[in-house]
């Protein structure tokens, strides 16, 4: 592999929007969406990113990010960790003073992610159809600024998530996020369960979908 390819990633889209999830919800953010994902979750809302895209080198990606005038950058997918060279991009962004986060499914190791990058680890509940792919070792590589996310489709998912939170004492390690599967589970039902059970988790819904619907570039 030549040096130029060493510094390239296959990018599906780069866009400027509001962060719709996580602890930085509401902040203007540049999203760098990488192509490809090894998982096939039943409720996936970014299937369009499984294929396509085009190769871009680090410098070109960073130039595009700088056009939008915000320090918040979110690396997402697909599954961004499926492209190993993403680590080089994150390192460059951290060195450039950006506030960087990565959204990952938790099926691939997070231990080598730059410690300055905020990890948002989406642990797959049974309703996703991909819970067997979870790498539970990732839960040992979380810092207080990181977040573990659970997308809930039904009571089975909710109980599974509660058990995992208790087993790994996740609320003592980082922020725990819970959100309902969009257009499947009523938002108020999950909210009521969290209140009933007095969970120390942060309820969230996808702000960007409320504003613009489910479409690329938002």
How is this fold's topology laid out?
Elements: H1 3-6, E1 8-18, E2 28-34, E3 54-57, H2 58-66, E4 72-76, H3 86-95, E5 99-104, E6 118-123, E7 147-152, H4 155-168, E8 175-180, H5 187-196, E9 202-203, H6 207-212
Parallel strand pairs: 2-4, 4-5, 5-6, 6-7, 7-8, 8-9
Antiparallel strand pairs: 1-2, 1-3
Summarize the structure.
The chain is of the alpha/beta class. The protein contains 6 helices and 9 strands; from the N terminus they run H-E-E-E-H-E-H-E-E-E-H-E-H-E-H.
SSE ordering: HEEEHEHEEEHEHEH
| Structural class estimated from helices and strands | alpha/beta
- Shape call: globular
CATH architectural grouping: Alpha-Beta Barrel
Strand order of the largest sheet: 3-1-2-4-5-6-7-8-9
Query: Mean of residue pLDDT?
Result: 94
CATH class: Alpha Beta
The total beta strand count reads 9
Total domains: 1
Largest beta sheet, briefly? 9 strands, mixed
Keywords:
218 residues, TIM Barrel, 9-stranded mixed sheet, globular, alpha/beta, 9 strands, 6 helices
Structure description:
With 218 residues, the protein is of the alpha/beta class. It has one domain (3-209): Alpha-Beta Barrel (TIM Barrel). It has 6 helices and 9 strands. It has helices at residues 3-6, 58-66, 86-95, 155-168, 187-196, 207-212, and strands spanning 8-18, 28-34, 54-57, 72-76, 99-104, 118-123, 147-152, 175-180, 202-203. Strands 3-1-2-4-5-6-7-8-9 form a 9-stranded mixed beta sheet. The protein is globular and about 50 Å long. The chain starts with a helix and ends in a 6-residue tail after the last helix.
């Amino acid at each position: 592999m030549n040096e130029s390819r060493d510094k390239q990633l296959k990018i599906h889209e780069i866009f400027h929007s509001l962060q719709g999830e996580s602890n930085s919800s509401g902040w203007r953010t540049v999203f760098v969406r990488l192509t490809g994902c090894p998982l096939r979750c039943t409720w996936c809302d970014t299937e369009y990113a499984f294929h396509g895209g085009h190769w871009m080198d680090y410098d070109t990606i960073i130039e595009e990010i700088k056009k939008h005038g915000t320090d918040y950058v979110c690396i997402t997918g697909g599954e961004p960790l499926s492209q190993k060279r993403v680590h080089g991009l994150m390192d460059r962004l951290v060195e450039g003073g950006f506030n960087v986060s990565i959204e990952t499914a938790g099926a691939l190791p997070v231990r080598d992610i730059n410690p300055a990058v905020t990890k948002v680890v989406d642990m797959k509940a049974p309703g996703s159809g991909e819970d067997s792919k979870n790498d539970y070792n990732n839960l040992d590589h979380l810092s207080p600024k990181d977040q573990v996310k659970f997308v809930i489709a039904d009571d089975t998912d909710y109980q599974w998530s509660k058990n995992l939170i208790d087993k790994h004492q996740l609320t003592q390690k980082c922020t725990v996020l819970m959100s309902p599967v969009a257009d499947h589970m009523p938002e108020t039902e999950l909210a009521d369960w969290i209140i009933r059970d007095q969970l120390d988790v942060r309820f969230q819904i996808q702000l960007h979908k409320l504003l613009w619907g489910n479409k690329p570039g938002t």
